[in-house]
């Protein structure tokens, strides 16, 4: 009995010592966690002059307001969730919980109501959604290519399926996927087009809209708007942000040699945005004043007052919404049109026989120090999937009746939203026009079997 009591005392004493030691140990750890630099989610850093530094995403606050990131398969879901993580600095997840993060995420990627997507267990908590759509003529082949890679145990975005595999799958499943695409269109959401998000000129503006939308959610503090264009280039175009300052100076010198932000440049950009939005791409990025062309877009100066100038060019003193990087991309396009060669990194490597100069080597070293996104497959032309192992891009052909079915689906969606969602209406009509153009290239004697629509036929 005495031995048992003695052992009991020793056991109690030992437990007490362990408790006190653990209290001291974890108490210090709690102190460390309360320090502002540890255990706290840090955003991608906004640097001066619109620069940025991408940091690794971490868990969001427990009370974060989660957003659905919905897209039909083949509409750039992987690219979009990389962009969201870079903009917010917070981890994202998907409906199948492949990364095991559950509901500790800022967005949940889903393809629902397409058959590959599901609603998560905590669906009732999600009240926000943004939707990424793409012309089905391009997104369906991209989806098929993903299926081919999965079936053959290939890395994602690494191989293009053989043409005969596409033809076999197309004839068996295309009509089903056209119906799935139509079912996917939702309401009460921020609508983003893949074409707009990847466009060289208006892509940063679309990313800014996404950044603002994400910032309205509880527990989310996105990166400063001045650095969104830098984040967009790093994620969507796979251009390392560390090199942006030097790149901007180089392009300024090589392009038009005109100051950024002039009245003339803003007018050209607004004209581009208006024409592009009306045709098909992203009506949501058109400034509100552009929808009312009868109103003056710039304040008129008295006749006896001379307009301000910058280096002899007229300037708009009230110009605050024009992104210099967007204008710079416009300069690049104009310079290229005039025959001035602005070499990309890939072109430089090719021209130099694979040997990089010191600047490119330094650029690569810095890029290796930052989070890497698997975006090497992307091209400036968002309409095709590029593969280093799969060979050159080839068109994915359709039969005439299949394109007719696709046009009928797009027109049905356009009719549904013509009066309730003008943006979606114009996007669907733009997609339909692209499909019709592809149909005309087939030179088929098969008659067009498309329902008439006002303004289309």
From TrEMBL:
Region entry Disordered, spans: 294-317, 376-397
Cross-referenced Gene3D superfamilies: P-loop containing nucleotide triphosphate hydrolases
Compositional bias ranges of the Polar residues kind: 300-312
Top-rank taxon, per record: Eukaryota
Membrane-spanning residues: none
Signal peptide interval: none
Protein name in the entry: Sulfotransferase domain-containing protein
The species this protein was found in: Cyclostephanos tholiformis
